[in-house]
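Researcher: Sequence of Nuclease SbcCD subunit D follows. Predict its structure.
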Amino acid sequence: MTSSFFNQRITPAVLKIIHTSDWHLGHQLHGYDRQQEHQAFLDWLQQQLIDEEADALLVAGDIFDSANPPASAWRMLYRFLADMAKALPQLNVIITGGNHDSPSKLDAPHELLKAFDLHLIGAISRHSDGSLDTERMMVPVTDKQGQTAAWVMAVPFLRSSDLRTEGLGEDDDRLIEGVRQIYQQTEQAARAKCTGSQALIAMGHVYMASGQLSEMSERRILGGNQHALPADIFAKDVAYVALGHLHLAQRVAKQERIRYCGSPIPLSLSERHYRHQVLAVTLEGAQLADIRSLEVPRQVDLLRVPDKPAPLNEVIEALQALTLSSLSLDMQPLLEVPVLLDAPQPMLREKILAALEGQPIRLAKITPHYRDRTHERQFREQRLSDVEPFQVFRHGWQQKYQGEPDPAIAATFSHLLEQLEQDEDQ
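Model: Prediction complete. C-alpha cells:
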C-alpha cells in the first residue's frame, strides 16, 4: 500500500498546451476584409481547446495586423476571451505582443484581464533602477488539479530600446546579446520558482537563424538577416519554446522543442500552399512528451490562374475556362493573375475583369511580367502596398551606388524604421 501511494505521488503531471500565433486580426488582403475567416478560425480554435482538454493557450504575438486595429478586431479578441472563460474557466491564457502590435495598447487592459487570470503582455517593463521586471513575464500554468505544473517566460517582441548593451565587448552583436540577456535574466528568475517536476516554457516573437520567410508578408526584425537569433539563446532545460513571427510552421535548428506554429490563415498570396495549423503540445513533468499539428480548415481559397505567367490571350482563355461553385461574396476565392507582356497593356484590369464576369471569384492582384525588362524595372511596376520599406531602400541604393548596401547601413536603416514604427505605436 505504501509503495502504491509513493508511485502515485511521483507520477509527473501531464500538461496540454495549444500554441498559436500571428492571428493578424483586422488584416486585409489587397483590400479584401478577412473578418469572416478570422472568426471561423477562432470558433474552430475554441472547439480544439475543448476537444483537446487543453490546460493552456499560448499566443506568441501579432494578435493584430497593425498598431491601430479597427474596433471590430478588438471586439473579436474580447469576445473570444469571454467565450473561452465560460467554456473552459480553468484554461490558462497567455498572450504576448508581436512587432505588428502596439505595446501600450496591449498593456492597457493588463490588470483587468489579469483579474480574470488572462495574461496579455505587450512589452517588457523595468524598475526605476533599470533592472528587468521579470516577475511580470513569469506566468504559472496550472494543471487540471489546480497545481502549478509549469512556468511560462512570456517575453513579448523586443525592440531595440528594450535592450541593455552596457558591458558588451566590441566584437559582440549588441542586438543578439541584448536579447540573450533578457532571456537569461528571465530564465534565472523562473528557475528560482520552478521545482524539479515543473516545466520551463519560453515564448518569443523573433526571427531565428535558418527560419524560412514568406515572400511578402514578413520582414526580418531586429535589424535584418545579420541579426537572426541563434537557437542557443534558449537554455537546454527549457522544455518548449513557443515562437511567433514566421507564418510557415517550422522547427528551428532541427530542434523539436523550438517551434514556429505559423499563422492560422494565409496572410499573402504567396502563402497559398502553406498548411496552416496550431500545435498541440504535451508535457510530462519537466519534459516535452509530444507535439501534434492541428491543421486549420481553409475557409477561403487563394488561386493563381494561370499557374505561371502567360500571354494575355492565354490568360483570358484560362480565366474563362474556370468552373467554380457558387459562394457568398465573403467566401469566394481570392485570385492572383500573372500576365506575360511585351509592354504595358492599356485597360489590362478591365480585360481581365471582363473575362471573369459572372464568376464567383474576387480579383485580388494582377502581376505583370515583362519579357524585355530587368528585375529592377519590374520592381517599379509594383504597387507601393506590395513592397516593404527595406525593399524600396535597397532598390534606391542599388540604383545610385550599383551594389548592395553595406550591412551596417542596412542595420541602421532597419533601426530607424523600427524607431519610426515605435513612435507611431505611442
